[in-house]
Amino acid sequence: MKHRWLLCSLLFLFAVYFEGAQFYFLLGLIGLYWFLRYRDRTVFIVVLLAFCFLFVLQLDPSLPKGNSYRVEVVKPYYLLLKNGHSLYYAERIEGASYDDIYTLETTLSELKEDSSFYSRSIKKIYASQQVYYQLNILSAEKVREGSSIRRSIWNKIQEVDNEEVRLFLNQVLFQYDDNDLFSNFDSFLNSSGIPLSSICYLLRKAVGFVFYPQLSSVLFFILLFAYGSLTHFSCTLYRLLLSELLSFVEEQDDALGLLILGLLLINPDYRNSLAFQLPIYIRFVSLYKKDRQRFDSFFISIPVQLAFNYRFSLFSSLLFTLYRSAYPLLCLLLLILLYARGVFLLQCFMEFIKMADALFLNWYLSGKPGLWLVALYTWVLVDYFQKRKKSRIALMAVLLVGNQYQSFFHFTDRSVFLNVRHGDCYIYQSSFSNSVFMIDTGSTYNYSRLKNYLNARGIRTIDKLIVTHDDGDHNGNVEALKKDYRVKEIISEKQDRIIYKGKEWVGLLQEKSYASENDNSQIYLSRIHGLNYLFCGDISKEVEEDLVDTYPQLKVDILKSAHHGSNTSNSFPFLSVLYPKLVIISCGDNIYHFPSEETIQTLQALKIPYLCTKDEGDMEILSFGKWNILFTSTHLLQQIR
User: Fold this and answer.
1) What angle (nearest 5°) sits at the alpha carbon of residue 402, between those of residues 399 and 404?
2) How far apart are CA 114 and CA 123, in angstroms?
């Protein structure tokens, strides 16, 4: 009977990754398997609860009641606003602070699926936080300023003149980062729920020191519930509440199994949350430890960091163990320095952190691990915890290094049009290579998408980077790339030809100059495995006309649409002469309404196939011999002939 609840919960976790009839069919199979194996009818209670909970979750989440909202969470680019017991996503309101009350005139829309190979779906991430709708704010009026302690601390931090110190305080005390994308270690820690868990752990010890065990457990549960009622019941808070309820279960594996079942019954979308997966993974692996050693958390955190962050650094991983236990003390120290005007000491502390980070700058591994590698690493890790043989550490290191250099085992060339929302970014990676060739970088706002792709592919070197022109949605991440990766060559001036890994990139209209910065975009034509690719930057119809006149025999198979599908480009004569097999439009939601309706109508009139990154996400063309297969992150698959 050992591990039966754990086995049941893992089977249920597998089932919730399916939807509709498939889920209910699997749920029925789990119930039947359980009954036949254990002759235990309690499984039918679990199945019934699952049916009831998930039926309720299929109903529409609650809509706003009235037009009064309280600011619950402040992030760099957005707010989470509370109305009743529900949270809603909204763009930043100028001057908004924690617990401010606003009267808003809004329209409501469901959060959109923002597809990408390696950047997580915003819709799924917010669903794990029980946020399902976006408020499109038409007008906002502040009714009352908040009066909470956290608002006072937040406002005090915003008064700090030093930008780096201010950002550091915001990140540590308020998890102020773009944690939807886990693009750095700070986001990884904050999204995992470690800050709240650490504070609650210290509070639990304090309550247990004062009161008897049973009474302290009840009081701690009441405190957690009260905190959730005043703020929001997050995945981390539910986990702590359920863990307290299950503390009387004798078998640790049964307690873990019941914890997993409880969280998934509360919200099946928790399965996508780092605040669910990291603690569950730590507890699962810890079941097999014969003793406790100092760096166990270091080994446990590695596969989770790689699976979510696509990157693990030696320095960050060493901090992980310290951060888990010392977070409350760190917060207390920072608050003392903040109110004692110890900004200089904070600057010194930050400089020390930066020096240490720089010392270990190149001591990192990256690459998205496959499910098989995570399973194999976990098996070796469990074996190490049971036997404490150093040879197991060596085997884990081999697995991690192999994951870093996974690209050396890929026999296809890759042409990737990355979904960087409103911007351009193209990446070419030749077969059996661990470096890339790039055209443009997208905007600073969307750097995490580019960083996630490079880290997931295990890329550490950018051999050549072409910046088509000086525009923020094309060159916004050049400096960030130079800081985070080895960039060998940046090409910002027009070139006649560029040779890379046996492929030739021919510059077009290099001798011509125009008054507009957009029209002076570098234009390149390349042939990759039988397909001609044309990259036009942000050129206008005037330059398109010059292209056709100067190169009357120009043949194009894949056209990267000029200026994100604008009607100032993509003219009917230009497209009718080139008549490409596929037009790729790189854009996201934007105030210019790209791609324009006129461009779409032109493409439809000419019956030219087109795909837009806003709709299809990342697009990747895998090439081998004469085969060219197009994949998109929305699971579109087709051969380009």
Assistant:
1) 115
2) 7
Query: What tens digit of pLDDT does each residue of 421-435 get?
Result: 889 999 999 999 989
Report which of 126, 129, 132 is spatially closest to residue 58, judged by C-alpha positions: 132
- In this structure, of 92-96, 121-125, 570-574, the range with the lowest mean pLDDT score is 121-125
Rounded to an integer, what distance in angstroms lies between the CA atom of residue 580 and that of residue 567?
18
**pLDDT of the residue at 104:** 92
CA-based torsion, 596, 599, 602, 606: positive or negative: negative
**Rounded to the nearest 10 degrees, what angle do helices 390-404 and 371-387 cross at?**
160
pLDDT of residue 183: 47
Closest CA to 77 of 592, 440, 448, 618: 448
d(CA 363, CA 400): 13
H or E segment at 525? strand 523-528
Question: What is the tens place of the pLDDT at every residue in 139-165?
Answer: 999 999 988 888 999 999 888 888 878
Question: Which residue in the block uniquely carries the two structure tokens 């955190």?
Answer: 301
H/E stretch holding 71: strand 68-74
The answer to whether 524 touches 556, Cβ cutoff 8 Å, is no
Cβ(461)–Cβ(429) under 8 Å?
no
DSSP string, 251-262: -HHHHHHHHHHH
Distance CA 633, CA 641 (A): 21
